[in-house]
């Protein structure tokens, strides 16, 4: 287990939050993760780390932002760019994911501003879910918990980030 995974489990135990810790085969996609958990893909929290750059930043200064949306949806980068007010936007590289969060691609948990120094934005559709499931720092371990409990642990900004109508 990674350091961030250990931090998440310690936080859940410290806050006396019920959760299910699922060990499974490596899952590199949202579809595989949902199948390994035996749960609908829609309750998965897909965490995407973006590197942003705006005109007010110097050419070499960049920031990061975490966008979390239902795992069965695709992100609309134009919506993200508009919401964040940035001119340039790209996914974080594998090296940046490792440097910032200590995780490989597909294993980033949705705890941006709580455990990482990264602002966090949740897609509004997640509000309709009773549960959230996410990879816990590795692609072989997941956490499933009540959405209401999850929301007590983070301070997200809500927005519309998925392709198509929300």
TrEMBL record:
Pfam families hit by this protein: tRNA_edit (PF04073)
Record Gene3D superfamilies: YbaK/aminoacyl-tRNA synthetase-associated domain
Chain ranges passing through the membrane: none
Domain spans labelled YbaK/aminoacyl-tRNA synthetase-associated: 24-152
InterPro entries xrefs: YbaK/aa-tRNA-synt-asso_dom_sf, YbaK/aa-tRNA-synth-assoc-dom
PANTHER family xref list: CYTOPLASMIC PROTEIN, MULTIFUNCTIONAL SER_THR-TRNA DEACYLASE PROXP-Y
Full protein name: YbaK/aminoacyl-tRNA synthetase-associated domain-containing protein
Species per Swiss-Prot/TrEMBL record: Neiella holothuriorum
């Amino acid at each position: 287990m990674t350091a961030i995974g250990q931090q998440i489990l310690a936080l859940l135990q410290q806050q006396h939050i019920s959760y299910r810790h699922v060990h499974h085969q490596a899952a590199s996609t949202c579809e595989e993760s949902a199948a390994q958990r035996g749960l609908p893909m829609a309750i998965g929290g897909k965490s995407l780390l973006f590197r942003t750059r705006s005109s007010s930043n110097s050419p070499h200064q960049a920031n990061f932002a975490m966008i979390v949306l239902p795992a069965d949806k695709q992100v609309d980068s134009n919506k993200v760019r508009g919401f964040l007010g940035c001119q340039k936007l790209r996914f974080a590289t594998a090296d940046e994911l490792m440097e910032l969060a200590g995780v490989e691609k597909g294993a980033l948990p949705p705890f941006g501003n709580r455990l990482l120094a990264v602002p966090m934005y949740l897609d509004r559709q997640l509000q309709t879910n009773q549960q959230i499931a996410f990879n816990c720092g590795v692609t072989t371990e997941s956490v499933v918990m009540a959405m209401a409990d999850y929301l007590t642990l983070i301070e997200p900004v809500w927005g519309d980030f998925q392709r198509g109508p929300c």
